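A reminder from the course coordinator: this example appears on the midterm review sheet, so study it carefully.

Given structure:
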């Protein structure tokens, strides 16, 4: 079993050989540049060829669905994630061995995320929505596995590599899925009015189970993006109202979790007298390192 873990690129290790660290550094930087260069290029330009080829946000405008998003809010969201990911790249070159180990342990998932995000963008701008949706689902499982296995990564790494991309991928599944089925008729809109509450349930799960205010805040921002765009494309509808309600609930719940933590107090959902495993009781959400 130990030998298998040695060759497993997704294995969790306390230290890494110089050869494996070099591989992580090269592949991480290369895949990061690849996906963000493509993101920026197709954010403004449509691929040449068929008339169905459009830029990332051109597709968003050409397929107005109940899950279409506001370009500017999503762009700001990703600019912040991109800047934080630069910090993650620097962590791979840190002189602190603990920081290097923490960064390298999630390196394989990050590389896979970058490659799948690249594939998604290429499929999305070429109007291959079914394949784009499948790629998002694969990445959702990749990032979910990363989250549950490395939920205690240092906070900035957690936001940049774990929770930020995971929150986006979850919302993007609705975004792409709605475009895939051309969700514009009444039945599709009613279904979307129900499905949108999945964003609230997903965010509350992480707030309650992991006290992860980063997921709560990220999903509230993406819900705001949904609400703003839906208001401008179909003001007489429930979707934008539901989106803003979800945003507000998640934001307030996030504050309820985050603020006590900043003052060294923990909001507990347990009744007095409940028995909890001692290791679980001492386990923090995220390291501040």
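Designed residues:
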């Amino acid at each position: 079993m130990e030998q298998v873990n040695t060759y497993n690129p997704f294995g969790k290790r306390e230290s890494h050989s110089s050869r494996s660290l070099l591989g992580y550094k090269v592949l991480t930087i290369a895949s990061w540049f690849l996906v963000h260069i493509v993101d920026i290029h197709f954010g403004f330009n449509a691929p040449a060829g068929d008339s169905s080829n459009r830029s990332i946000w051109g597709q968003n405008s050409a397929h107005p669905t109940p899950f279409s998003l506001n370009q500017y809010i999503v762009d700001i969201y990703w600019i912040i994630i991109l800047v934080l990911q630069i910090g993650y790249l620097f962590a791979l070159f840190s002189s602190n061995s603990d920081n290097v180990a923490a960064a390298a342990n999630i390196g394989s998932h990050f590389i896979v995320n970058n490659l799948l995000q690249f594939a998604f963008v290429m499929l999305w701008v070429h109007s291959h929505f079914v394949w784009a949706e499948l790629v998002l689902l694969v990445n959702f499982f990749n990032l979910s596995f990363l989250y549950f296995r490395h939920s205690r990564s240092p906070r900035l790494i957690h936001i940049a590599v774990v929770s930020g991309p995971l929150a986006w991928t979850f919302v993007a599944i609705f975004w792409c899925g709605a475009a895939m089925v051309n969700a514009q008729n009444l039945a599709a809109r009613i279904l979307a009015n129900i499905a949108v509450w999945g964003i609230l349930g997903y965010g509350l799960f992480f707030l309650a189970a992991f006290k992860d205010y980063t997921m709560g805040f990220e999903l509230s921002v993406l819900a705001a993006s949904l609400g703003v765009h839906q208001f401008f494309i179909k003001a007489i509808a429930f979707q934008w109202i539901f989106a803003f309600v979800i945003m507000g609930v998640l934001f307030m719940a996030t504050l309820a979790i985050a603020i006590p933590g900043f003052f060294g107090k923990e909001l507990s959902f347990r009744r007095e007298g409940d028995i909890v495993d001692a290791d679980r009781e001492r386990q923090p959400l995220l390291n501040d390192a």
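Residues 18-44 form the longest helix (27 residues). The CA atoms of residues 223 and 247 lie 5 Å apart.
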